[in-house]
Specification:
Strand content: 5-15%
Radius of gyration: 23 Å
Distance between the termini: 25 Å
CATH topology of the largest domain: Rossmann fold
Helix content: 25-40%
Structural class: alpha/beta
Oligomer: single chain
Strand order of the largest sheet: 3-4-2-5-6-1-7
Shape: elongated
Order of helices and strands: HHEHEHEHEHEHHEHEEHEHEHEHEHEHEH
Bound molecules: adenosine monophosphate
Low-confidence stretches: 392-425, 430-459
Length: 459
Amino acid sequence: MTRFTDLGLSQPVLQALDMKGYDTPTPIQAQAIPPVLEGRDLMGIAQTGTGKTAAFMLPSIDNLREADNQTPFKSCRMLVLAPTRELAGQIAQSAKDYGAMAGLKVQSIVGGTSVNKDRNKLHRGTDILVATPGRLLDLIDQKAFTLDKVEILVLDEADQMLDLGFIHALRRISQLVPEDRQTLFFSATMPKQIQELVGKYCRNPVKVSVTPESTTAERIDQYLFMVQQDEKQTLLEMILKERHEVPGKFERVLIFARTKHGCDRIVKKLGQAGVPANAIHGNKSQPQRERALDEFKRAKTPILVATDVAARGIDIPGVSHVLNYELPNVPEQYVHRIGRTARAGRDGVAIAFCAEDERDYLKDIRKKTDAEFERLPLPDNFRAVVEGVGPTKREQKPRLAKPKVRPAGGAAKKPKPKQKHTARKGKPEGADQGRPQGAKPGGNRSRSRNRNRSHAARG
Ligand code: AMP
């Protein structure tokens, strides 16, 4: 088995890994570290949870050490672009952890915080900068920062950046970084638009892939309720309070909804039903998101309702159940969502609520991901509760701490058909993200670089 010591990393980086207690590289780390150390460009297909941050950060720290350039004034030597504040924060923390012994300065800048503070903190420059694209361009436009000295450029979760409308920002940034640089490009999916971006950004990249696209993890048991859109909230409350029909012990339940407004509505109604939950989405302030995540991690409020955009890229350990309150219209998104559970060798449960008008999404998910769903029956008293003749919500007590594990299986009852049409409302989060102005299409690439640095020669 490959160990970190076999990969050619320097002592300070190995020491930092030792302090974190990591000795065995994950597959993406084993594949990516050697070529990145050699200065090659890289295209990695990998999701959060695979260890991709260390895959690009560890060899880059060594490359920065080896090049030994000065920390540039109002610029940086390594630029990591990430789609969300949470991901940027996590990457910056990893850079600090992994670079603890390397003496490199790490900063991060994200939207939703004071621009003035960012300007001040970047005035003296930094070795590693982790940024969201919009805030970075703000500072560049204010002449507070330049990208002239970038030696290594990392694009993390590139597909998510495109989903968020950052394409123009990325094109602009690509024109501001030096031609002679190393580019490390990561994306969970590789649609055509991303492949084009890779072609623009990278030069003869080494390709590494750790999760076959569109395959759902084997350790995740997937269940399905067929339920009308306007009855989903009732079903959700019955599941969370009565543990109806749902296998597995509830530790932390991550619920996905399509819109920010939808998340808020679910949380509000859960609260009214006596089930505390938090929401994270793009309209929440940074402190609100941090608090929600912290309470979720500590299992103080173990129910979190999120949009795809907010949840993407966040490493949350111990998610026992992922609940798709609404099905995503892109099958890959389903894979991302349920991949939030069954981390670190544990099993996980994914539950999908599918309404009549989501059947096509379900068909697509089944076809493209080979997902196998076990259909679960609605609770016996479901109709009575929906029609208001069942036990009142006050009579049902939340039982989050006492799971009733029910083995999978049993014949599924069909839900009673209801004719009412339930159209989906609201824009998915990310659909309305502003695009930075003044974008120009990407320019020619005629870089000349000498990339055959031998890492073995490092001291
Ligand atoms: P990432 O995919 O980069 O977000 O990493 C997912 C999680 O795995 C993070 O909590 C990392 O700290 C952790 N991790 C990364 N590499 C390793 C490793 N080689 N051994 C154990 N844990 C790791």
